[in-house]
Amino acid sequence: MKRMTIILAAVLGLAAVGGVGLWSWRAKAPDRAPAGTHAHGTGPIIYYRDPDGPYYSAAPRKNAAGKDYVAVRASEDVSFDDKRPETAPKESAGRRIRYYRHPMGLPDTSPVPRKDSMGMDYVPVYEDEAQGDSTVAVSPGKVQKTGVRSEPVERRTVTIPVRAAGRVDFDPRRTAVVALRFEGFIESVGKSAEGDYVRKGEPLMRVYGPDLSSAAAEYVAVLNAHSAARMEGARRRLVNLGLDDATIASIARSRRVPRAIDWPAPQDGHVIERKALSGMRAAPGETLFRIVDHSAVWILADIPERDVAAVAPGQTAIIRARSYPDRPFKGRVALIYPHLNMETRTARVRIELPNPEGRLLGDMFADVEIEAGGEEKVLAAPESAVIDAGKRQVVILDKGEGRFEPREVRIGRRGDGYVEIASGVSEGDRVVTSANFLIDAESNLKAALQALDHGEAGK
After folding, report:
1. Chain centroid to CA 229: how far?
2. Beta partners for residue 367, in sequence order
3. DSSP letters for 326-362
4. What is the pLDDT along the chain (459 residues), one digit of tens a residue?
5. Nearest-10 crossing angle of helices 210-225, 245-254
6. Tally of helices (H runs) and strands (E runs) in the chain
7. 213 and 257 in contact (C-beta within 8 Å)?
8. I need a labelling partner for 202 at 20 to 30 A (CA). Which of 70, 353, 431, 453 fits?
């Protein structure tokens, strides 16, 4: 019993000594950081990190395991790179850093390297970038990652496609009407019917007329009398009645008056109308045949009023008939009719084109595309290079070595994926055609920061 009392007293004595030692250690180190924090960090807390993984937070929180996020203070140099630089760079290839700007574009700058609330490094701004010019410097790696592409500004023909609907029509200058100039009778009609193709000189019908027989008899009498003074007048009378040279020559050779005359076709073409019948009486001027030459046709298209100024005679037109969508026909604008359709506010355009195979039929519908804009070459850039902001248009010049400059331009007509550049750039300048919006945003951010910097300097 006495032995147990002695052991208990010894244990209590050691506990007391340990308690005094622990109290004295805490008294000597009152500022020691608690477990889970960095002992050497100074300054305000800028963010918190997960002790078990690469996760970060702007406010205190716990991870999935219930552990508190570790506070990271301003003095601690934390990098997300595999290899952390020992000190922040002050110069890069001879370029001096003027200040650091917020990585997300906020109006916040710092004279020394720092991180934002999400742990992102502030971006250095060099002295040559902070000058008054608008040149933007982009690192080669960033240029490659963003897919920046550029093309030179060149002189080319910029055509504006004007599209409209049209229909095939016959050329009236290639249409012939067969009619008699005297009262006659049709003894017989040839085999030609509507739709048949006839050639020039092919007999269409046999015609008898008293006036024609009288004129032929007078001509034969003059020939037999060898009267040169009356010969020209007699021949002229036959010509006025509509006889052709071949028929008159045949009468002169035979010296006989024919009872009926074979009436020939005046031209090659298709018979689109036939009214002549065997035995019928034909009055002077009555249409007996109508023949159309389809080797060339018209396309009548109605274009909107807003496109009238862009279309001019001589421009090329591509015709795609509804029956032959995969076979385009090429023609030229021949005429713009001098009046508008008041109901549709469209102008009629006449396009002439060859039709040697006769594939284009009368009244056939067609889709018309006129290559408007002229044939002269103008300074043009790809359409994707122009950033249209409404009242102003901007292109990004590629000055090489990762340097870009926004340039305001004045544009003209557009077409074929290109836009005319009336002023602002010169021939041979390279303009950015892809990722130009990113560079433009970088330029606007730089301009805003420069204005902020100048404003602070003026205070």
Report:
1. 74
2. 165, 320
3. TS-EEEEEEEEEEEEETTTTEEEEEEEEE-TT--SPT
4. 444 444 334 434 433 434 434 334 343 433 444 444 444 567 778 778 888 776 777 789 888 788 888 888 876 654 444 444 444 444 555 567 777 877 766 667 788 888 888 788 887 877 655 444 567 666 666 666 667 788 888 888 887 889 999 999 999 999 999 999 999 999 999 998 999 999 999 999 999 999 999 999 999 999 988 888 898 999 999 999 999 999 999 999 999 999 899 999 999 999 999 999 999 999 999 999 999 999 999 999 999 998 898 898 998 999 999 889 889 999 999 999 999 999 999 999 999 999 988 899 989 999 999 988 767 788 888 888 888 877 788 888 888 777 778 888 888 878 778 888 888 888 888 888 876 666 666 656 555 555 555 554 444
5. 50
6. 6, 30
7. yes
8. 353
CA angle 209, 211, 212 (to 5 degrees): 65
Helices (H), 61-195: 140-146
Taking every pair of C-alpha atoms in the chain, what is the biggest distance, in angstroms?
186
What would you report as the CA-atom Rg of the chain, rounded to the nearest whole angstrom? Answer: 48
Burial track 305-337 (b if 16+ CB lie within 10 A, e otherwise): eebbebbeeebebbbebeeeeeeebebebeeee
Q: Which element (helix H / strand E) includes 121?
A: none
Q: Which among 333, 408, 423 is positioned nearest to 378, based on CA atoms?
A: 423
Instruction: Tally Cβ neighbours within 10 Å of residue 418.
Output: 21
Residue with tokens 């024919």: 258
List, in sequence order, every beta strand (DSSP E) within 355-416. 365-372, 378-382, 387-388, 393-400, 403-415
Question: 80: closest CA among 115, 38, 106, 45?
Answer: 115
Kindly report the length of the chain. Answer: 459
pTM here is 0.54
